[in-house]
Specification:
CATH architecture: 4-Layer Sandwich
Mean pLDDT: 89
Order of helices and strands: HHHEHEHEHHEEHEHHEEEEEHH
Protein name: Metallophosphoesterase 1
Helix content: 40-55%
Strand content: 5-15%
Strand order of the largest sheet: 4-5-6-7-9-8
InterPro entries: Calcineurin-like_PHP, Metallo-depent_PP-like, MPP_MPPE1, PGAP5/Cdc1/Ted1
Number of strands: 11
GO molecular function, one term: phosphoric diester hydrolase activity
Largest sheet: 6 strands, mixed
Keywords: ER-Golgi transport, GPI-anchor biosynthesis, Hydrolase, Manganese, Membrane, Metal-binding, Transmembrane, Transmembrane helix, Transport
CATH class: Alpha Beta
Structural class: alpha/beta
Organism: Ploceus nigricollis
Length: about 400
């Protein structure tokens, strides 16, 4: 059987063999281009910016000037030199780079927030490894001058509290211009950046500095929100900020018992939802959470860390959105949040990235079809009607 098939292949005209080879190359190239490039456009093109109150009746010019378009993502976990395999790095970083660059091109956001754990091994990195990780990050998350990128510190970037040092914090702040207690105001909207790793409450040097900055900023914001005719001597010499209630951006979520109440296709797996969270490890402590709520009275809290989606209400009125991981290494269905925000209102919409299982299914189906085509071409796979014809001929001969 093998000798006859090889003879058949040799007898095929050279032109026909080259033509078939060219068709195979085109088929394989088409599958690769779709799965590694076009699929991101097909999926992200379906995402739309949500409307805020009155936004549906605004002209495009009015919307552009008054509504801030923000993309929020978390937990990219760029692999390092210690635990990261080169193939895993290549695959995951290509997926995130294509997703991010496609989202920027299609959605044109004003600002992008990354809520910590940018790196997987920042807490261990040597200066050389850190420089290499930063270089790769800057390539993947490059952006135009029309889009601002704001990065928050996570425990994998500077270490858990017991691993965090002034050197690691300063190293991160130098690269990303991040400071806990920093206020970013865009289009009259106040965003407060929090180093949640430094909210341990044990009086460590980094913790004291961070909390002092947060308290000072809280005082400014509270004074700015008071009515003009409200007399307060403590606010007489305070710099006035936009009166918009702030949005907190941090890595750790505020305290909650578990993810038991979280719903949605990208929430935690059923077997993980009822596992109790550990304070100061999975979530902030109850004390630190109450401090942040008391100091800022935020209208929205955005956090990461858990790698799964969740929405909870604090004090019955303050929503917190936990943003799932942006990396396929942590999830089969990564996503990011699209936010249309004004000084008085906001609207959020989730945008899912391509499911890795579906991309893998496309590759498997294409591989199976490729094998069938090759076997049929070299006549190892006999068409059904030829098989039936041979059976009839043999029967007549008998």
């Amino acid at each position: 059987m093998l000798s006859s098939s090889s003879t058949a292949v040799k007898n095929l005209p050279l032109k026909r063999r080259l033509c078939f080879l060219l068709k195979l190359v085109c088929f394989v190239s088409s599958v690769l281009i779709f799965c590694e490039f076009l699929v991101y456009y097909v999926v992200i093109l379906q995402c739309r910016w949500p409307n805020v109150k009155g936004g549906a009746h605004m002209t495009e010019k009015e919307t552009s000037s008054s509504v801030l378009k923000a993309i929020i993502l978390a937990d990219t976990h760029l692999l390092g030199e210690i635990k990261g395999h080169w193939l895993d790095k290549l695959r995951r970083e290509w997926q995130m780079e294509r997703s991010f660059q496609t989202a920027l091109w299609l959605l044109q956001p004003d600002i992008v927030f990354i809520l910590g754990d940018v790196f997987d091994e920042g807490k261990w990195s040597s200066p050389q490894a850190w420089a290499d990780d930063v270089r790769r990050f800057q390539k993947m998350f490059r952006h135009s001058a029309f889009t601002e990128l704001v990065v928050i510190a996570g425990n994998h970037d500077i270490g858990f509290h017991y691993e965090m040092t002034t050197y690691k914090v300063n190293r991160f702040e130098k690269v990303f211009n991040f400071t806990s207690g920093k206020l970013i105001t865009r289009k009259g909207i106040n965003f407060v950046l929090v180093n949640s790793v430094a909210m341990e409450g044990d009086g460590c040097a980094v913790c004291r500095t961070s909390e002092a900055k947060l308290m000072a900023l809280s005082h400014k914001l509270n004074c700015s929100q008071q009515k003009p005719n409200h007399s307060n001597k403590r606010c007489s010499d305070v710099e006035k900020l936009p009166a918009s209630e702030p949005i907190l951006l941090q890595h750790y979520p505020l305290y909650r018992k578990s993810d038991a109440e979280c719903t949605g296709e990208d929430s935690a797996a059923p077997e993980e939802k009822n596992i109790p969270f550990k304070e100061k490890y999975d979530v902030l402590s109850q004390e630190a959470s109450q401090k942040l709520l008391w100091w800022f009275q935020p209208r929205l809290i955005l956090s990461g860390h858990t790698h799964s989606a969740c929405e909870v209400l604090h004090a019955g009125k303050i929503p917190e959105i936990s943003v799932p991981s942006f990396s396929w290494r942590n999830r089969n269905n990564p996503s990011f949040i699209m936010g249309s925000i004004t000084p008085t209102d906001f609207s959020l919409q989730k945008c899912f990235l391509p499911f890795e299982s579906r991309v893998f299914t496309i590759y498997c189906a294409a591989g199976a079809l490729l094998v069938i085509l090759v076997l049929a071409h070299v006549q190892l796979l006999t068409p059904p009607f030829y098989f039936a014809q041979r059976l009839i001929s043999k029967h007549k001969a008998v």
